[in-house]
Amino acid sequence: EIVLTQSPGTLSLSPGERATLSCRASQSVSSTSLAWYQQKPGQAPRLLIYGASNRASGIPDRFSGSGSGTDFALTISRLEPEDFAVYYCLQSGTSPKTFGQGTKLEVK
Amino acid sequence: EVQLVETGGGLVHPGGSLRLSCAASGFTFSSYAMTWVRQAPGKGLDWVSIINYSGAGTSYADAVKGRFTISRDNSKNTVFLQMDSLRAEDTAIYYCAKTIFPRDSASCIDFWGQGTLVTVSS
Question: In what order do the strands lie in the sheet with B78-83?
Fold first, then answer.
């Protein structure tokens, strides 16, 4: 099983700042199979990035994804108030599919 | 508009069974692999199972293998999760989800239902 480790567990920033979230895999993951999701309280997750670096439909361009192999990152260039949420990475290329444990992005 | 509506959740005793259903609309259901993901209260996302577009291929997380069975009825645009021998640690919101690319079980999830709560307790 591929273990995804997200860091930091909690990230405290202010609106307007830049956020960088990390997702590290225990073994190499195909870039085509790495995705990022945003989840707000009481809501289902929402796809942000697929294929490591492709923005999903309707996702603002302040969200970007990068990385390959075992190291991936989600960057939010300038935080908006609605961006404070929990973020998860997912690898879907190898069964069992696995999620990271999540990074909570909170207002400083 | 893609819609996924889960039903069948509820309270069940340890050792009991439940069958979840997910009714899909707004896309060509028979072309997409479908997935179940769960989330225990206050916890992260936990992948449960996937079924390929035709129903001929399935995969399960180790935690549910041998107890849960995923299936689909493409004539009714519905995917199911039969859950047997339920344990307290199966308590979670269960989400039905669609993969992003047709006929590609390795592609990620692009759309989620709103979930149904399963509570396993005596």
Answer: B3-7, B18-25, B78-83, B68-73
Q: Do A92 and B113 touch (CB under 8 A)?
A: no
**Per-residue pLDDT reduced to its tens digit, A54-104:** 999 999 999 999 999 999 999 999 999 999 999 999 999 999 999 999 999
Judging by beta carbons within 10 Å of its beta carbon (0-12, 13-18, 19+), is residue A102 exposed, middle or buried? buried
B contacts of A100 (beta carbons < 8 Å):
44
Nearest-angstrom CA–CA distance, B100 and A21: 23
Tell me the pLDDT band of A4, cut-offs 50, 70 and 90: very high
CB contact at 8 A, B33 and B12? no
